[in-house]
Amino acid sequence: MGEIVASEIVDLLVIGAGPTGLACAIEAQRAGFTALLVDKGCLCNSLFHYPANMTFFTTPELLEIGNIPFSSPNQKPNRSEALEYYRKVAEHYELDIRQYENVERVEGRDGNFTVHTMDRFERMSHYRARKLVVATGYYDLPNYLEIPGEDLSKVRHYYDEPHPFYGLDVLVIGGKNSAAIAALDLWRHGVRVTLVHRGPEMHRHVKYWILPDINNRIKNGEIKAYFNSTVTNIAEDDVTLATPDGPVKLPNHFVFALTGYHPDFSFIESLGVSLDEANDRCPVCDPATLESNVPGIYLAGVVVAGERTNEIFIENGRFHGQLIAKDLQEKLVTV
Questions:
Q1: In a 10 Å sphere around its CB, with 0-12 CB exposed, 13-18 middle and 19+ buried, how is residue 317 labelled?
Q2: Contact, 301 vs 316, CB < 8 A?
Q3: 146 lies in a domain?
Q4: Which residues, 6 or more positions from 266, have their beta carbon under 8 angstroms from its beta carbon?
């Protein structure tokens, strides 16, 4: 198939159209530059794949980008409200967003990059840009357990809603927010839930209004929990755990392995960006400008923190666009 070629060069191409990527494009446009966003999924793809009834930990104003107010009747907005808000922001700024195009490779250098993409029908396109921002997040790449049976169709690494699991035996693996929220939601909708976590108790980072809830359900025996334990095997009808009291085999219909996610380090390295292996694989970048060791390539959002995915969220990542736009003003005005 022929490749679709973009004849014009944009000032900034942003890889990733989540809240941070949107903020980067908006701030670039407000500074007088042209911007284009490319995403392998839909607008705010990670948020779209959050649980359907998810409520944010934060308040609406801390999710705002582009000086557009986020109005919500709730103290803590939900997923649906956030998606609507970011759609309205994209519409207001008339952002040029190419959805469902995966970046295959990047060529060129500072001032003249070529970004090659492929759409859902394997059609190729390429775009030219003077500067790049990588704002790809981390939610698309789960941390795998690497145990027998993990590839079975009954194993899920994302939780959406409880209804399909009513009346069944479900194992939730993990001890942080996503595991606690899934276990509680499943239990409240008629699912027989068992939770297994390698730590001695639920993680301290579990949201303050969720932690006592999950602990009480475990204490009351409504949710069975195995701590200091791991899953060693997943079979069609059961799972096997390694516990302090020895191996335990449990009947099982579905498994939610909610063990966290990580950035696409392979893609980042393919761009020539170095990772600091001694510092949780944080990509090398200037903290004042967020420009990486590769001139003209910036990093934004959670990818800046490497494996420390609990350090950067929408609340602080949304300001990365301002740092990058300021640097663009100093470096692109002479182009």
A1: buried
A2: no
A3: no
A4: none
Same domain, 234 and 285: no
Q: How many of the other CB atoms lie within 10 Å of CB of 306? A: 21
> Distance between CA 289 and CA 134 in Å, rounded?
13
* Region of residue 192 (phi > 0: left; psi between -120 and 50: alpha; otherwise: beta): beta
- DSSP H/E element including 86: helix 79-92
Q: CB neighbours of 13 closer than 8 A, spacing ≥ 6?
A: 35, 36, 37, 38, 113, 115, 127, 129, 131, 132, 133
- Residue 9 CA to residue 113 CA, distance in Å, equals 9
User: What letters, b where the CB count within 10 A reaches 16 and e where it falls short, cover 192-205?
Assistant: bbbbbbeeeebeee
CB 131 within 8 A of CB 332: yes
pLDDT in tens, 293-310: 999 999 999 999 888 877
Q: What total of structural domains would you count in the chain?
A: 2
Spatial separation of the C-alpha atoms in residues 224 and 175, rounded to whole Å: 13
Alpha helices in 189-302 (DSSP H): 211-219, 265-270
Does one domain contain both 132 and 164?
no
Residues 82, 164, single domain; the answer is: no
Supply the pLDDT for residue 335. 44
**Of 76, 75, 46, whose CA–CA distance to 139 is shortest?**
46
Within a domain: residue 149? no
pTM: 0.89
Q: What is the DSSP string of 282-335?
A: EEPB-TTT-BBSSTTEEE-GGGGGTT-TTS--HHHHTTHHHHHHHHHHHHSTT-
pLDDT band per the 50, 70, 90 thresholds, residue 3: low
Q: Which CATH number covers residue 65? A: 3.50.50.60
